[in-house]
Amino acid sequence: MNSLNLKDRLSMIFDRDRWTLWMKKYFRYVLAVLVLLAMALILSRCTAGTSADEDPMSGVYQKFSEDSNEELNALIQQYYKDFADGNVDDLQTIATPISDAEKSYIQFFSQYVEEYQNLKVYSKRGADDSSYLVSVYLHMKFKDIETTAAGLDFFYVQTNDEGKLYINNIYSSFNQANGEYELDDNIASLIAAFEQQPDVTALQAEVQQECNEAMVEDESLNTFVNVTLQDAITKWASDYRAQVAAQEAAEQQAAAEQKAAEEAAAAQAAAEQQAAEQAAAAQAAAEQQAAAEAAAAQAAAEQQAAQQQQQQQQQQAAGLAAGQQIRLTESTNIRTSMSETAPRLALAYAGEYVTVQMSYAEGWTKVTYNGQEGYVRTDILQAQVQ
């Protein structure tokens, strides 16, 4: 595929410097009033040391005449029927490849053509025995124009893998003018040499003269070909360029929207993933904290139970039980802490009662006296137990 974009290729069609070549090449030579452009490359026949069958150029120099090959004639007849009908679906089954631009052009051009008449197929051998260089003489009947216009068209016909003939549309007039598909240099040279042969140029001149005479005799044909049709082609090209540009813009917009949607989806997925990870981390931290708190509570409970057990053992060893009331037999000092030097909280007299709270290994017992808690030496209390 040529690297030029479609806009550039279409602009070539209507470039004033290329207009003559385009009209001659593509519009079925109906505008044969234009001077045929000479091909830049003129090849000499090179047959030394080879047979005619082995030389790919040998067919070019054969004199052609009207072809009697039924398959070839049927192929060309079908091509022009489909072309006149604008039936690109059927057309591309016998001519391939056909670009989107050429499909659009065929459908546009078919609006002005009623039919192709008086087809005469002339052929020469192509690059090998299974290919043909084909010139087609025809009359083009435009709609609402009484006089037909003579034309001359070219095809390069080959044989497919199934042994059937087909038109290699890479060498169509449209592609040769616009370069949408890359040409094979050898076949392009073969075609260039073919179009310079005396019998071919003689046929071209004959068709040109016939077309000139028809347009001189019928002003409506001349006006249609040189004004109406050219204006319509210019408008088609402009519309097609706009259509392609709009399609490209729509595709770019769709691609941008798709990209934005994908990026938004990716960002959403990343945010959801991050949120999920954060939630999982928070849950794990909460579970870890809960486990630590539970372990701490368990340890505290176990420690408290151990302390209580120890206190119970100490109280049992001291013979004093928690909640036990002791009637004092003598006055007793109640201290603020477990020490003989601690301040005295109260002096309990003989006959008064104290209530045991807890005995400690340090030899002191916590008691309640007149609503106050204080400490009394355990041995003093034991001595007063009755």
Automatic annotation (TrEMBL):
InterPro entries: SH3-like_bac-type. Residues 246-318 form a coiled coil. Residues 321-384 form the SH3b domain. Keywords: Coiled coil. The keyword Cell division does not apply. It holds the Pfam family SH3_3. It comes from the Bacteria. This is SH3 domain-containing protein.
